[in-house]
Amino acid sequence: MRQRARIGIPFALVLALTLATTGCSTATDDRAPKGEPAARTAAFGSCGRQLSFDRPPRRAVALDQTSTETLLELGLQDRMAGTANLKTKIPAQYQDAYAKVPVIAPKIATGEQLRAATPDFVMAASGDLYTKDRAGTREELAALGVPAFVSAVDCPQHDEAGRTPFELLFSDYERLGEVFGRTERAGRLAREQRAAVAAAGANAAGATARDGRRPTVVYLYSVFNGMPYVAGRTGLPGEMSRIVGAKNAFDDVAEDWPEVSWEQVAARDPDFIVIGDLSERGRPGDSAAEKRAAMAADPVVSRLAAVRENRIIEVPGIELDPSVRSVHALGLLAAGMKDLGYVR
C-alpha cells in the first residue's frame, strides 16, 4: 500500500483507506484525561470552512512549531499523534511534553507522512501548509472527516468582528479549548496573555521620540544573501508597534516580511531597530550578531543614529510571528523602549 502510494495513488484515497483500516485500533476510551471536563459539541468557522466536533480529538497533528507549542501549552501532548516543521529549539517548559509527541516530519509534512499518523484533527498556523504537494488540501481532509484548523490570525478577512491579531490569537486558544474540552485552561491562558498585552501598552500614550513624534522602528527579521527582510504592514510587529506607541517604518508595505534594500532601511531612518535573533534556525545571517555586523558593514546604514547609538532591541525571532510566545516579545519591546527613553 505505501509503495503504491508513492507512485501515484491520490492522497485522499490513500488517507481514506488508512483511516478506515485503523479506526478500530484508535477507537479507545473517549473520555477526557483525569481532572479535565469532556468537550461538548463544538462548531465554528475556521478560515472560511465550518468545523464541527462531537467528541474531543484523540490523534491531533500539528503541522508547524507554532501549532505544536499552542497544543503543548494547553496540556494536550497525550492527544497528539504528530508534529512537524520544527524551526528552532522547543522551549524548556515544553520539552518534557514535546518528547511524548511523534515527529512525523522534520520539515514540512507531506500527505503520506500525515496519512501515516492517522489523524482525527490537523492544525496549522497558516493555510499554505494545506496544499496537494504538502499535507493535502483542507477539502481533501474534510471529505475524509478530518477537520483542518487554521489559525484565525492567518485569515483576518473572515473575522466579522474585526479583531486585532492578538485577539485572533487568543480566539484560537478558546476555540481549541472548546474542541478538546480544555475551556478552563484555554480561558486562563487567554486572560493571562490579554493582561500581558495590556501591561505592554500601559504607557503607549506617552511614547515619544526626541522631537515629540511617535518613535519609528524597523524590525529586522533576517538577512539572506546580504539582503534584509523586515516587518511590513500585515505581520504581527505592526500590531506590536501600535500597542507600545511606536510606528512600524515599513507599514506602507502590504507584506508580512518583505525583502528590502539597506538603502531603503537607511531612508526610513528609524528611531530604533528591533532585531529578531534566529540563531537556533542556523541559516547564514540569522543570528543577532550577524545582523549587527551586516548593519555595521553597510556604508549607509552604519551611519544611522539608531546603529551608531546602539538603539537596538533584541528579541527571539520566532516570537515576532504569531504564537503562544509572542506576548513575551511584546514585553521585551515595551521594556526596551523604556530603556531607550521613549517611554517614561
From TrEMBL:
Domain of life from the UniProt record: Bacteria
Keywords: Signal
Keyword Cell inner membrane: no
Signal peptide positions (record): 1-27
The Fe/B12 periplasmic-binding domain, residue ranges: 59-344
Annotated PROSITE patterns: FE_B12_PBP, PROKAR_LIPOPROTEIN
Keyword Metal-binding: no
Protein family according to the UniProt entry: Belongs to the bacterial solute-binding protein 8 family.
Listed name of the protein: ABC transporter substrate-binding protein
